[in-house]
Structure formats: structure tokens, C-alpha cells
Amino acid sequence: MSKGMKSQISSGLITFEFDQQLLHTIEDALGDLRGESRKVLKNAVNKTAKQAKEKLAEQAKETYVVKKTRFTKAMATKNATTAKPEATIKITGAQMELKDFKVSPATYKPKNRPSVTKAKVLLSSSMKPLQAGSKAFLAKFASGHVSIVQRRTRKRYPLKKLLSNSIPTMVGSQERVYGIVEPDIYDDLMANIKTEIGKVLSKR
After folding, report:
1. pTM for the full predicted model
2. Residues whose CB is less than 8 angstroms from the CB of residue 29 and which lie 6 or more positions away in sequence, other chains included
3. pLDDT per residue over 49-64, tens digit each?
4. Would you list the DSSP string of 97-133?
5. For residues 64 and 32, what is the distance between their CA atoms, to the nearest angstrom?
6. Cα–Cα distance measured from residue 181 to residue 71, given in angstroms and rounded to the nearest whole number
7. Phi-psi region of 56 (alpha: psi -120 to 50; beta: other; left: phi over 0)
8. Reduced to 3 states, what is the DSSP secondary structure of residue 66?
9. For the segment 7-16, what is each residue's pLDDT rounded down to a tens digit?
């Protein structure tokens, strides 16, 4: 198979693109069944996108202190068609609160508040004190929502919620997630194309 496919990420959108050379390679492999080439490519691309979504979520879970389901739910796949055999994975989500990661204390106890609040975002990191600026602490809002906050001024209010990365930023990281999974995407597509070609040829 020729290397006629690439995946790229931009603004939370992963696109799986191919060039005509890849389609010609599939046509050559199918011979007199070359009319099935676009169907082969469509099926292979869709399976690859599904695999990529799973691998991205798994890699993100192994990197950040966030449950895998949070990543999976934030990714939506748009399938390829025979007319346009290109798939996309759209990753959405605003900045996550620091409380959504691992923090200590994890439970709001106004009468037993520790002198230092700690947190970590990466699984490989240790818990670090939140000491930049004013003191960070757990606060419970009137809605019942609990978050790690800091005071904006010396006054009691207003409070500022502490935020970390968004899911699109985490999944799109070349160093930690997308850049690690990207080589597998090409390998999976090539394997899926061969499988789909085999299915067509077996019907002769």
C-alpha cells in the first residue's frame, strides 16, 4: 500500500484525509472488482476513525487524572461516505475545573479546612500545593457546586474558580496524546483496507 493518507488535528477537529494514489492502489488490488474501491475505502476509514477515538480516549486516560468516559463523550465521529470517504472526529469541551482532576482535600469540610490545598492534572505527577497568588481552597456555592477557588482580592468575595486544560487541548497534545496515537492511525487504516479488500475478493 502506498502512503496516501494523513490525519491532522486543528481546533479540536481531527480529519482523516487521503489522496487519489491510495484509491488507485485499492483499485489495482481489486482488479476487475475495482468498482468496489470507494466502498472499501469508506468502510476502512470509518473503522479507523472508531479505533482512533478509542485509542485517543485510552491514551488520555493513561495520561491525565480524568475518567476515560469524559474523553469518549467529548468526541463525536462523522463517518465517511462512498462519495466522500473522509472521516472526522470532533472534540468539544470548555476548560475543566481543577476540581475535576485529583485534589486534596477532595471533600468540602468548612470546619476542617487544611492549611494547604493540593492538586495534580497528570497521572505521572505528584500532588502539588496550590500556592500561586492568594490561598486556594474548596468552596461550596449556593447551587451546591463544590470547586477549588481563590479570592480575587483581599475581600471575602468574589471568588475565582481554578481551571485547567480543556478536553480538546488534552487530546490534541502532540507530546502526550494525539502525537503518540497518530502513527497507529495510519497503521490501522492500512490494515483495515487490506481486510476490506479481502472481503471483496472472497466473494468472487
Report:
1. 0.89
2. 197
3. 999 999 999 999 999 9
4. EGGGSEEES-S--TTS--S--EEESBTTSPPEE--SS
5. 49
6. 15
7. alpha
8. coil
9. 778 888 999 8
